[in-house]
Amino acid sequence: MNIIIPTDFSITTLAAIQKSIEMHSSNQDLKITLVHGYQLSDSITDLLFHSKSALMERVIPTDFKESLEVIKNNSPSIQQVEVEFFHGWTKRGFKQLCDRLKVDQIVIPSNEPFKAKSRSSFDLRPFCKVIQLQVDDLNLAADNRMDMNCVSGLIFNELQR
Questions:
Q1: Which of 12, 100, 102, 111 meets the CB 3.0–4.6 Å disulfide criterion with 141?
Q2: 35: part of which helix (H) or strand (E)?
Q3: Rounded to whole angstroms, how far apart are CA atoms 137 and 157?
């Protein structure tokens, strides 16, 4: 099953990944794509030297990467986790991204406000809500087992199971 999670690379995204794993049977292979909205610069120089890897290094925090690795290593149902950047501003562009990724479900962590990682980041949740796919709005604050204040709380809860 291919799942998209709009991300701001925060603890909320990690919790949404955990919930996605819990919502599906353990024998079902999951391919999770974290999608971040990022507006490209209008500068021709910036566009010439734009690379996805450099953008990932600039926007994704190290503790997020490390926590994501722990979750992947402790969840046999996760086949793949990748990061994509959406640079468009239209529903059609987002729909094309979903079609290209062969998305079955969109999981939206709805309880936390979007926290932009840079001036060029933007919230993808409005795009997700108008796409004609299965959309699950998760209220992660309702889960008492999860400490939403620190990454270590999320990882500790996962390792206790």
A1: 111
A2: strand 30-38
A3: 22
> 136 has which bridge partners?
107
Is the separation of the CB atoms in 158 and 18 below 8 Å?
yes
DSSP string, 122-148: E--HHHHHHSSSEEEEE-GGG-TT--T
Q: Are strands 2-6 and 30-38 parallel, antiparallel or unpaired?
A: parallel
For residue 62, what is the DSSP state?
H
Residue 2 token pair: 């291919």
Q: Which domains does the chain have, with CATH numbers?
A: 2-160 (3.40.50.620)
Per-residue model confidence as pLDDT tens digits over 54-83:
888 888 999 999 999 999 888 888 899 999
Q: How far apart are the C-alpha atoms of 85 and 41, rounded to whole Å?
A: 14
Extract the tokens encoding 49.
């030297």
Please say whether the dihedral angle defined by the alpha carbons of residues 107, 108, 112 and 116, taken in this order, is positive or negative: positive
